Amino acid sequence: MPILQDLNRAHSYISEDAMLAVSDALNVPRAEVYGVATFYSYFSVKPRGTYVIRICRTISCAKQGDYHPAIAALFDELGIGMGETTSDGMFTIEQTNCIGMCDQGPAMMVNEIPHIKLTEASVRSILNEYRHAALAAKKAQ
Description:
Layout: H1 2-11, H2 16-26, H3 30-39, E1 51-56, H4 59-62, H5 67-78, E2 91-96, E3 108-110, E4 113-115, H6 120-140
Parallel strand pairs: 1-2
Antiparallel strand pairs: 1-3, 3-4
Helix pairs in contact: 2-3, 5-6
């Protein structure tokens, strides 16, 4: 699990080649590695954006007053829908059952960072922060 977590974190997904390498290195059947990689929702076996946005879809978040406008702002700002990745490869939107912020919803996670009490304005601000961080990282290279 820790190896798959590291691969997923580093590349935003676990490639077939990576799964084969893990299988060979640990002497574990390939099917077992694939089974683990596809079982857990936080792992992906297909390329995703640098920033994976997970939207909480539980009733406690969805019943919060700003949930639907905040999610609509997310889709509008990025120009993509659920399960899609922006053309620049920066953002992917996914749903998740719970991120443990039920009393502070609506909530989403970007990679491993939770964002709570979302509004239309806060969603746009959060996305701009990640865009600026990506630009700064690119300039630093």
